[in-house]
Specification:
This protein has 356 residues and is an alpha+beta fold. It has 8 helices and 18 strands. Strand 4 and strand 5 form a beta hairpin. The chain is elongated, with a radius of gyration of 23 Å.
């Protein structure tokens, strides 16, 4: 007997309470992985596991069809010191479900799991469906979705569950973090020195402040470059040999991370070394049928400045989920229960329009 959407929603909310009660910091998600696997198995679904990545295929998976990935993560950051409530005690006050990971991204995850269960036995769908509840998203770890993708069938399009107020993030900025070095001549502070690395940094900082990139994205706007850390010197009477800086660059979908690295290494008035080039921007064609299905339901579209597991995907993808990203990583994190109810309903309606 097919479970009703209301019953499915209540089971999803109960699962979220269970997940909140289990600490699941990045790399330590084994117990929440167990709970997610048990949830799916309770509906007779065959579950697969790689590390703490839990995944499953729809019942009538057909290799001749394209494949839709539903993905969200079950790891969390550690609670900050401003919490006034027990982060691992799920409870509802004034319609808000409080607890660590409730908003980022537990509400999205359980809503996608419920949506996958809803479509699990459906026949005649235009796409296969893979559900992947993954770990190590918060620290982009080696055992995250990056390790899972190589063993999955080819993915044609993906929905990544992150809190977006159920509007469709049709593009997401990438990230390159650079270690920058401004050099000079070390000396005793009492002696003349016309090549003081700290003074040399003044012009370099001005260059970074004025730096702009020509290509502006319709969805994501400009590339944003920000100096976020500066470090130099160890004692008052020694002029240091160099100043070390960290530069955070949020990359729009007009550039690859490699292009940004090439430009800055050529043009910047200091040494620039990228830490990683793997967190590229991502997007979906605004005319994609998945986007059209959301628009037909009155949902909006926008470009997101924040990173997610979309950065690991090479296919077209949309970020979409209940909750509000401004609550993520905040003290006394919460999600409205009604946001989960609405999220499941909208996920099902959007996918119904897309898959049928």
């Amino acid at each position: 007997m097919k479970i009703s959407q209301d019953q499915l929603t209540q089971k999803a909310i109960e699962l979220l309470k269970q997940l909140i009660s289990i600490p699941s910091f990045s790399g330590e998600e084994d117990k929440t992985g167990d709970a997610i696997a048990a949830f799916l198995e309770g509906f007779g679904i065959e579950v697969h596991r790689q590390y703490n990545n839990i995944y499953a295929f729809n019942k009538h998976f057909d290799e001749s069809k394209p494949t839709l990935l539903l993905n969200s993560h079950h790891d969390t950051v550690k609670p900050n010191n401003a919490y006034t409530k027990d982060p691992f005690h799920p409870h509802i006050e004034d319609g808000k479900l409080f607890g660590l990971g409730s908003n980022d991204a537990g509400g999205c995850l359980v809503s996608l799991l419920a949506t996958f269960v809803n479509f699990y036995e459906a026949e005649g769908l235009s796409h296969n469906i893979i559900m992947a509840a993954t770990g190590e998203e918060e620290d982009a770890g080696e055992k995250s979705i990056r390790s899972l993708l190589p063993i999955l069938p080819n993915i044609d399009v993906a929905v990544v569950g992150e809190p977006t107020l159920m509007d469709l993030a049709i593009a997401e900025k990438g990230l390159v973090v650079f270690d920058a070095v401004v050099k000079g001549t070390p000396s005793h502070a009492a002696h003349p020195n016309n090549n003081n690395a700290i003074y040399n940094t003044i012009d370099v900082l001005q260059w970074f402040k004025d730096c702009s990139f020509d290509k502006v994205s319709e969805a994501l706007g400009e590339v944003k470059l920000t100096v976020t850390q500066i470090n130099a010197g160890k004692q008052h009477n020694v002029v240091p040999a160099q100043v070390d800086m960290v530069v955070d660059v949020r990359v729009n979908d007009c550039y690859s991370n490699q292009e940004i690295a090439d430009l800055l290494q050529k043009e910047a008035p200091c040494e620039m070394t990228p830490r990683s080039l793997r967190l590229n921007s991502s997007s979906i064609d605004p005319g994609h049928d998945l986007v059209k299905s959301g628009l037909a339901l009155g949902r909006g579209t926008y470009g997101s400045p924040t990173l997610s597991d979309q950065a690991a995907l090479s296919c077209q993808s949309v970020k979409l989920g209940p909750g509000d990203s401004t609550r993520s990583h905040s003290a006394d994190e919460f999600i409205f229960v009604n946001e989960i109810v609405e999220g499941i309903d909208l996920y099902i309606k959007i996918l119904t329009g897309f898959l049928q």
